[in-house]
User: Fold this.
Amino acid sequence: MNAWGYVTLGYVLVFVVLFAYSVHVLVKGRTLSKQVPPENRRWM
Amino acid sequence: MIESEATVPAHTGSRTTRLLGLATLAGIAIVLVLALVVTGPDAVQGDAARLIYLHVPVAVSMNVGFGLCTLGSAMWLWKKSRWWDTVAVSAAEVGLVFTGLTLVTGMVWGRPTWGVYWTWDARLTTFSLLFLLYLGYLVVRHLPADIEVRNRRSAFVALLAFVDVPIVYLSVSWWRGLHQEATLSLSSTISGLMLFTLVLGITVSLMGFLWLLVHRFRVAWLEDEVEMAGLDLAIDERRAEAAVMEVSAP
Assistant:
């Protein structure tokens, strides 16, 4: 693999991991929000 | 007036996080163009140096995360404030994700530069220890205990884990190994468009980190709300059981 192959691998890995983690956090937030009364989940 | 369910959306987003998220996405697009198209290859490392525009920004964000975790833990020990404890745990988790990314981008950069993905160099060894320490923090955090005990335990682990952060930073000066000296320092030679791309990359990475941190903070807050509601329910049930037993006693 040449240098560009490693560059591509690095960038793809980072954005895939960040996207997956972001989705995980957002989905967890939605699930938990439904279990908590509105007055305890008012965000600024 | 009490806000209805309809006016309080069931998610962790807000106007601020949406604006921050959009700004981060725009910033990522600009950094990608600068890092992969506009800047030229490095005179020594060639095109592999383009990974530095990714590796250094995630490493800086990781350090901010662990700094916040330490601050949050110290503040919890001092003030016993739930807000600070939630900052600590959220920053530790998001910081750990960024640590993993720093580790992976470092390995991918090391292969074309050093010829190996991994070597037991001082920077890499102290860095992998850092990853394990914060992983340990999250494990301690999930051990069964009441909230006060859990917070105290994890605060002490966070203070202990942070000792490794300056050791990681100084390891390249203390023990001469394969890893190069800090990319951004008073003695570094990076300049011009390369420096601009790197600084912009760090800014965008910090924006993304902050976006994730705010969402993770809200998730941690909701987790505690659900746990406390469960405890209240259990206490009410026990009281009801005790009341029934009192009534039925001869």
